Amino acid sequence: MKTTKKLQRLLIWWGNLKFAPFVGVTLLFSYLIFIFYLPVALFLPARSSSGEIQFFKIIESIIIAPVLETLIFQALVIYILDRLLTKKITFQIAISSILFGSFHNYNITYIFFGVFLGIVLSTAFILYKRKNNWNDAYLAVVFIHSLRNMIAILIALMS
Q1: Is residue 15 packed enough to be buried (19+ CB in 10 Å), middle (13-18) or exposed (0-12)?
Q2: What is the C-alpha separation between 18 and 142, in angstroms, rounded?
Q3: 33 assigned to some structural domain
Q4: Cβ neighbours of residue 113 closer than 8 Å, sequence gap 6 or more
Q5: Is residue 122 part of a domain?
Q6: What is the pLDDT of residue 158?
Q7: CA–CA separation, 101 vs 96, rounded Å?
Q8: How far apart are the C-alpha atoms of 79 and 126, rounded to whole Å?
């Protein structure tokens, strides 16, 4: 079986999941995709961190950033591309992901990190939109993005 057929089957399966399994699988994919990021990360400088996590930073990361970033980089970009430029999903995912990654410009490493995460989030948005609607896709991706950021904060607090 060709790789594209396997990928199509995977995307159909992923897109047909109910909300909770969809969120869980998407979170899993958001971590698994970093297998492709690791070789890049070896040659790039590490992300700098102040070491202190403030209350506003937690609120910003778990609520504000997911709401705004999903609105701008998934919903708005995909909507504009879909309506005005192209219906090609790979192009929509690529543009959405590159914009998402370039917005996370703390350093070059984090830009790559953002692009890879953007691939998962924009793919999830498109898949959930197909099964449901724009609003449900938006809310699902906001929830996934929030959970992912919350996990990152919890890991940072434990280290």
Answers
A1: middle
A2: 16
A3: no
A4: 34, 37, 41, 47, 101, 104
A5: yes
A6: 83
A7: 9
A8: 10
Q: Which domain holds residue 101?
A: 56-159
The pTM score is 0.88
What's the rounded Cα separation, in Å, for the pair 88 and 127? 13
> What burial letters (b/e) apply to 109-146, b meaning 16+ CB within 10 Å?
bbbbbbbbbbbbbbbbbbbbbeebeeeebbebbbbbbb
The mean pLDDT value for 87-115 works out to 91
- Residue 54 CA from chain centroid, whole number: 24
For residues 145 and 70, the answer to whether their CB atoms sit within 8 Å is yes
Q: Is the pLDDT of residue 107 over 90?
A: no
Please report whether residue 136 resides in a domain.
Answer: yes
Number of domains present in the structure of the chain = 1
